[in-house]
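Re: your question from the hallway

Yes, I did run it. Sequences:
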Amino acid sequence: MTDSVLAQAFIYLCAAVIFVPIAKRLGLGAVLGYLLAGVIIGPFVLGLIGTEGHHVMHFAEFGVVMMLFLVGLELRPALLWQLRRPILGLGGLQVAVTGAVIAAAALALGVTVRPAIAIGLTFAMSSTAIVLSTLTERGLLKTGGGQSAFSVLLFQDISVIPILAVFPMLGVTVAAAVNDATAHAGRPAWLSALVVVGAVVGVIAIGRFVVRPVFQFLAAAKLRESFTAAALAIVVGIALLMLQVGLSPALGTFLAGVVLADSEYRHELETDIEPFKGLLLGLFFISVGAQIDFGLIGSRPLQIVGLVLSTMALKLVVLHVLGRIFGLDRPARWLFSIALAQVGEFAFVLLSFAVQQRIFDPELAKTLVATVAISMVLTPPAFIVLERYVLPRVTERGVDRPPDEIVDEGAPVVIAGYGRFGQMVGRMLRANRIRVTILDLDPEMVDVLGRLGVKAYYGDASRIDLLHAAGCAHAKLFVLAVDNAATATQIAENVRIHFPHLPILARCVDRPHYWALRSLGVRKVFRETFGSAYETGIEALKHLGFRAHTAHRLAQRWRKHEESSLEELGDVWRGGDRDAYFKRARGAMDEAERLMRDEDPTVYAGGDAGWNNESLRADAKIDTAAVDETETS
Amino acid sequence: MRRILILFAHPVLERSRVNRRLLAMARDVTGVTIHDLYDAYPTLDIDAKREQRLLLEHDVIVFQHPFYWYSTPAILKEWQDLVLQHGWAYGHGGTQLRGKITLNALTTGGPASAYRREGANRFTIRELLAPWDQTAHLCGMRFLAPFAVHAALKVVGDEDVGACRAAYRTLLEALRDDRIDLDRAAAADNLAVALPSLIHREVA
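Structure:
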């Protein structure tokens, strides 16, 4: 027994160790790596794990619970309150509309009413595990689309409870089922409601009043592992409590996480739970992959593929429409709808429950389970398609808003990019009554500027027609202040080619960008953080006792050296030999230090040599000796 | 009691031999305000209003500096250009500095013997300070002889500046307490040398 558990654990861990890095390396993401690992070690490829994958999945679902706890930790109550509209409105509509549409489709395919409703509700769910992991992995969770997806997932988690309550009524013998349901809960509805409310209040109370003193005690005892144990105990305990009262454990721990988001132990909790969550979620994804019944798919490939694609398409359309109603912009809408187009892990639970309640026969359930699993596996690749092909298109063209009609007023300066950087330049110029034409790609920024009484044009400055419209043909100066390196380089290239007479002053993000812009013939390139770092350096010297004037002189000398060595290093960098580059870069740093060291006699070799009186002193010694003699005589 | 303002200008004070020690001593003299110009305006961005306020608050203005190229370090020229405004310091309505006392406390690399007609520098310090003399005159200020410390390049340690440091203290205190013969101080060549004969006995 122990042997087989260890052997299994070994197989799972090896699969994760081998496939996840490969998947990440190929740009497929960790989630897809786990799923593929599951497929490969599963019963239909290598057969290293068999039917027990089902139990593993049950166990691993706890990873989802932990994930929601961590998500809760990131979400302060105030932030959650801000999300109430998307959670209730968007989430509620999503479950209702998707459920209705899928149920209608099922009816059209010849399923009877009750099973159709059950399928609709089941397929309305999306996969919290896959979506949140993928969004986090790709850094999309905090975007507008990511936040909306998160809100909907949260509502889905809540709605599983009433759906589980409704299912018995969809069974073959309604009366018996209702009896069964109430018998199952063992108490009347009002009492259940009371218990649920009590449990929620209990979770909040524990988070507020129990956890802190316990952690304070443990922190004082300096017992690292008991800290971890306590963190796990909180999560497991709350999950248990939630199961007892018939609530979703994920929801309960999420709530606990939110309550603890303000506590000073938030960071410790995060680091303690994180590895468990990671492992369990990985295990969960592997078991989803292993669950896919390739035998079934092989026997009816067209049917299954058709089901998967039509399900995802229907969900996608509903999500897209809802996203539009709730004011998501185009890229956010695509992210939101592609993220949630799959059917989630709750479906496995709901489907087996449905079979138990005799809503439909096991044969149909098997087909549905395969559909769900494939839709989950398709999600990470869908994200890749989204990021590589869909987002660039919908973002770049900005179809929601055509570029503004630019009125060429013959302004001598064109500024591309009017964020924090461009604004500083623009304001300085405008304060000196120099007219500027402002182009910016952020429609919000353009609107804000409009309110401030500054006319900025919305539009992509890398488009040549827009450059023409902005008056580049007769402008005297082009200030390139966009924050995206690739865009900036593109704009610089276009300006150089089409308006070779127009000098460019450009902002760059880093050294390679600096050299790229210089190679294009940009006259002056400014590293975007150089100015403030330079000022900070001067203040630091002053704080350490240098006279203000000396600190400035030293900083200026350093800056000159830094700028000339940057130009030199550019040649080495373009040569492509990285070893040579780093060697040269190190040399330049040493050189700068030597230059700064006050003891070094060459310190005056630069501009300050005029203040050096060392050689004068040497001369004076001879002279004064001679003079002294004449004086004494 | 006169209030004394030392307008100090040295671009590389860290390397100074005499000025640094004189300045340190002056800090101990009560009634003396020290204003280090290079420290206050490292980029030469002089705040003329603030400088004028400081001038109004004091009765004796001492410009202390090394004698670079027969003149002052650059910041003092900038200071003159920006602070001594027409209509404030001179010209129509420019009476704000009238009656104040001013002098240069300076250090030279070469010996005193170099600053005479037959010396290497051909002119005396007083002759070379003619622009300062005339500036003071135009502003209605009383221009005293310079306090000049020569052969500063020869200075190595504290003991080398002991005498001139004590003299500088005596000068500042005498100016503060009105114990110096201003007419003779204005006519002297070098206060550092002539000082003992210019000081009144302690007045009751």
